[in-house]
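Bit of a strange request maybe. I'm writing a small parser for structure token strings and I need a real example to test against, not something I typed by hand. Could someone generate the tokens for this chain?
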Amino acid sequence: MYTHDINFPLPAGARAVWRYIDLTKLLHMFEYRQLHFARLDRLADPFEGTYPKAFYKADDATWAELKRRRNDDPDYENTTVESFYRMLMSGDQGGLRGLSKEIETDPVRKLGFSLASVNYLRRHSYINCWHMNKDESDAMWKLYLSSEEGIAIKSSIDKLKQGIECCDKKQFIGKVRYIDYNKPNYDFSKPLTSTLSKRKSFQHEHELRVVFVDDLFRKSSPDKDDGEGRSLRCEPEVLIKEIRISPASGKWIHKLVSSLVHRYKSKIPVKQSALTDLPAV
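Reply from user aminoacidic:
Good idea to test on real output. This should exercise your parser:
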């Protein structure tokens, strides 16, 4: 279900959004009535879900010592984070106080714990990405689809909210902010801010994200992670306003998608990409 959060800025509800996918993902969406979410730490950009180095307020000597300790013990900070959550789950207040004191009095351990906590959140965060644009984008077709069997789902922010309402898991929707990770003047103090932050190199994506955060107090996911992410329930007929067929696709793809939509007793319009239109000459 959509959950409002002031830390997730949203444009107007009628704003058009697009999701560029291949035919198999569309079939999955109709067959299982699910929306696929990618795990944040498995995305191609290694900066996804991370904080700028300046956020940690550690000097070069502290970073160097952390690197040395990591070389001696690859699980150095992960062990501390797992202990912290284990004590939190078991209600071991005495253990928590002792561990917190150890972390606070050792700058290197504090830095390692902060980094490991961020990575822990990344492993439990899942996103579903949309492109904000009034019209379909030639650049997005080329960027996200490697074959001619491409589909663009057109929706709106309001329809996206309504389409995920049937799911019992809380989901947040927000506009991605594009930042310079080498500068310290960005606020990362608000919860889940990192899930909506990307490098400025990606600002051409004009991205909107649906964010789902798994139970942080479980060591492993309570639901099955398919190796690439998670799938959560949705209502395709509510969520999808229109389906566009790739400008590189043959007519048979249009017929196939139309047949697929009809098979699921859906009245969602299927149209060829407007980029195939010819000028008046």
